[in-house]
Design goal:
294 residues; mainly alpha; two-stranded antiparallel ribbon; 12 helices; globular
């Protein structure tokens, strides 16, 4: 039971980091990125490929950050002449293209089988010490990312992103480069998501195309929307709540005596009802964004 709780907290912290990274785009800048999970997959595949090539793990991390930044820049520039809705569809298409490449390039990514046997981050320690050290690393990274993005949102860059989100015409008239703002927000978000992906790859010792399913992006969006777009604390609360439902359903399955298929449907149904309730009665999330009044 204790090992299960340790696992649950670790996975929740990783997904909270992904949600915080999405909040930079969706919360601050108001960008509809439906392919955010591709950046997570890039980070996970980078550490997997580094392990497969017997490179230093640090090379894998740097590779993941670099490729995620390039992909983020490309995605942001892709939407310079597209409306918000069409850009969202384009990001979904880009994520599917990345997943298809991972699925078919067996020589590099392992194809449908993925890459297994990725070494843990703290492999030199004992099993128990390694798990605790990894959890501490993820939690510290999450706290640092939350503090950084909160400071970012409260600063000049965050205010310019919010102005772009609320009044793009006014932002343009004031001399802001909207394409540049979108590019910086997307690249920063992509690199943070790649860090979370690298953590996930090391933790499960595996990476495959299923890491980048569209359903994963929608789950992250659910966390952000339930918690509160633009509020870092709210996003973390949303991640805790959604992951708590995911974790508790297996216990309900054993208690109610239902099958795995029914349990999966119950899990999605409960999260869907929670999201619908928030949209109806708390449209800004459980912890709404607070804007400074002028």
């Amino acid at each position: 039971m204790f090992d299960f709780l340790l696992h649950a907290v670790t996975v929740t912290a990783i997904y909270a980091l992904i949600a915080v990274s999405l909040n930079i785009q969706a919360g601050y800048a108001g960008l509809l990125n439906l392919g955010h999970i591709a950046f997570v997959g890039v980070g996970a595949y980078a550490v997997g490929i580094a392990h497969q090539m017997q490179w230093n793990p640090a090379v894998g991390w740097m590779l993941g950050l670099g490729v995620a930044a390039i992909l983020g820049f490309f995605v942001s520039r892709l939407g310079r002449n597209l409306g918000a809705d069409y850009w969202g569809i384009a990001t979904l298409a880009v994520a599917e293209i990345v997943r298809t490449i991972a699925l078919n390039e067996d020589w590099l990514t392992g194809g449908a089988q993925g890459i297994s046997g990725i070494s843990p981050m703290w492999s030199s320690m004992s099993s128990s010490a390694s798990r605790w050290s990894f959890l501490a690393t993820v939690v510290v990274t999450l706290l640092a990312a939350a503090a950084l993005t909160s400071r970012l949102g409260a600063g000049r860059f965050g205010r310019s992103l919010r102005l772009m989100r609320e009044e793009p015409a006014l932002a343009t008239s004031m001399g802001y480069d909207l394409v540049g703002l979108k590019s910086r927000a997307t690249v920063a978000s992509a690199m943070m998501a790649a860090v979370a992906g690298a953590f996930l790859g090391h933790y499960v010792s595996y990476v495959g195309p299923d890491f980048m399913l569209a359903s994963e992006t929608f789950m992250i969006w659910t966390m952000v929307m339930i918690g509160g777009l633009g509020n870092v604390a709210g996003v973390v609360v949303g991640a805790l709540l959604v992951q708590g439902i995911y974790i508790s359903v297996p216990f309900a399955r054993d208690f109610l005596g239902i099958g795995s298929d029914v349990a999966g449907a119950v899990r999605l149904g409960v999260i869907g009802c929670l999201l619908l309730a928030c949209l109806l009665w708390r449209k800004d999330g459980l912890l709404p964004e607070t804007l400074r009044k002028l």
